[in-house]
Each structure stands twice: as structure tokens, then as C-alpha cells.
Amino acid sequence: MPEYLTQEQIDKFDQDGYLIVPGFLDISESDALLQRSKQLLEEFDLQNHPLTKFTTEDDNHVGDDYFLTSGDKIRYFLEADAVDASGALTRPKENAVNKIGHALHELDPAFHRVTLQNPRLRALVRDLGFHKDPVALQSMVITKQPQIGGEVPEHNDSTFLYTTPPSALGFWIALEKCTSSNGALSFAPGSHKTAPLTKRFVRLPQGGTGMQRVLPVEEEQKISEAHKGKYVLETCEPGDLVLIHGSVLHKSERNTSPYTRFAYTFHMIESPPHATYDEKNWLQPTAEMPFSKILV
């Protein structure tokens, strides 16, 4: 018998590749993460920051050392439109950050409690069949800043966190109301069963990162065209959890509203022998911080 989810919810996740779990965090829990996120933005020190921007566009994806060594740290990545041609911020630092990552789940007590000390989450993970040795490997606060919070184009998460066989699962928790105008997520239901992986985001031998083709561009275009018009926009309330299969296609539009869209997200994978994490992935564990066990 399921411990947290209903069998109907489990079946729906299997069918659609994503699942909305309303009120996974109560309002006090989600507000605590929101306030801690805002406090981190206030603590953000620009003095020695390389003004690293974050974008999900294939040709401009971040790949500098500040990004590549962020897996065991808490670092800040800026919105592309928050930095002008001269390298200066176009707005206050609190309104310029795209995301904070990637080790909040280990290094910050508030996010650690929700991710690694949460019995509800452990029960949910078991309900979805992760019994071997699932681990959390990255965590982020995504702020989706007013007016400049950029569009996130169609993608699936296994592109960035590939295992053999694929096992990535995303946990996306709304910390603020997510609407059609501030960048709520949209999904192509069932695409985790019909849309093969077309590319992978990897570390390049010469340094930096890049997209490695799995299928030709023409095949990717056909897959995208096949799912056009099938996306479902999913609005959320603070505390709602969205479970995201690593292979489901999803996206979000630009934030055109005057309001932020804070969300906390982290990803989980299976460990060997059930799945093997690829050594070419941009994110790699370190001796100081191996990937975090969830079912302990």
C-alpha cells in the first residue's frame, strides 16, 4: 500500500510524467523557505562575483568555472537581462538573480530539513518505487524575476542529469503563487514515453560545457512539432509540489508580470547498481560532498 500518495496519483504520474501534489508543504513551511531565499539574496556579495549569467539557450548555456564548481556550494546566477553590455547590473542585486544553487540541500539548514529530513518526502519516494539508494544531487531556488525572468524553452531534465538507465526525478516546490503571467510550468503529458532524449548537456574535454547531440536536429524538430499544442499550463499555490519525470517535456514562459515566482527545486537519481550516473554530466560529486542519500 502507498504511504503518502494515493494509487490514483501514482498512476497519473506514470501516465503523464508529472504530478501536482497540492499542499505538500504547509503555508508556514513554504513561507519559511521563501523568507530564507530572500535573506540569501540580501546576503549576496557582488564584490567578487564574476557576473555569471544563467540561460538555458543551447548556444549560450553557462559553462564557466564559477558554474562548474558550484555543486558543493551556494552560488548566485544572474538573469541575462540584468547585466548590460558594459557588465554592470541594470537593477538592484536582489532583483537581478535568476537562481541560487546548487548545494542548498546540504549547506543551508532550512532547505536541508525539507529535502533530507522530511518523512513525507521519503514516503513519497518509496511510493514511486525508488527503493534502491536514491540520492539528491542538486538544489536551487529559482526566482523568475519580474519582467526579466527569462523563458525556459522545451526540455527534459535527463538532458542535464543523465543516468543509465534514465532515473532522474525533479521535485519543484512553489514558494509563491505561480500563474500564467509570471512563468508557471507547462508540460506535454505523456511525453516521457514518446519523446526520446535528443541531446545532453556535458562537460567538454577542452573545458566548459556544451550540448552533445544524441539525435540529429531534424529529429529533435520533429519531436517538438509532434508535441506542439499539447502543452498543459499548471498554476500552483505556495507549498504545492510538482513531481517531474526526467524524460517529460516541459517549459515556462517569460515572467511578464510585476511579481516574482520563487520556487525551490531539487533533483534525485538512483544509485548503482540500479542506475549509473554519467561522468560526462556537468555536475559531479566531490570528495567533500558526495551525493546525498534520501532514504536514511
Automatic annotation (TrEMBL):
Superkingdom of the source species: Eukaryota
Pfam families given in the database record: PhyH
Record has Coiled coil as a keyword: no
Name under which the protein is recorded: Phytanoyl-CoA dioxygenase
Annotated source species: Pleurotus ostreatus (Oyster mushroom)
Keyword Iron part of the UniProt annotation: yes
Named cofactor requirement(s): Fe cation
InterPro entries for this protein: Phytyl_CoA_dOase-like
Matching Gene3D superfamilies: q2cbj1_9rhob like domain (2.60.120.620)
Family designation: Belongs to the PhyH family.
Keyword terms of this UniProt record: Iron, Metal-binding
GO MF assignments: metal ion binding
